[in-house]
Amino acid sequence: MAHYLKQEEIGYEPATMNYQQQKNTTGFKDADMQRIIGWILRMGVIVSMAIVIIGGIIFLFRHGQSINDYKDFRKVPPFIDSVKGIFEGVLYGKGQAIIQLGVIVLISTPILRVLFAVIAFFLEKDRLYTCISLLVLLIIVASMLTGRIG
Hints:
Blueprint (H helix, E strand, L loop, with lengths): L6 H4 L8 H5 L6 H34 L19 H9 L3 H29 L3 H20 L4
Helix pairs in contact: 3-5, 4-5, 5-6
């Protein structure tokens, strides 16, 4: 039969709240953070998928009957060479630009997740993870702006 120690034998009383409960007094809990992060990731994928499907339908409707000539290599159309060109192409209803917008939304989804993590850790008053998340976000932004990886 198992022997359980009484509080007097241990020499201390157990804490009434664990470390995370003591640390988190804002009412924003870890479970809330996980639920919101999951929602952000799901919605990002669903929205980007919908945008790509709409762009694909438009592209096939306009160019589905055209025959490709594979003897001459054609590079990416100039209107999807830049972010500005993509948004202009979307305004004109160009299918390839709408597909590219869906890809941009898909790429930005994990970046939004990191941004939310910074905010959530800040609200939890967790300085270490706030700083780590900020560092990750800065690395991502710097890589995007400079075009360098690592």
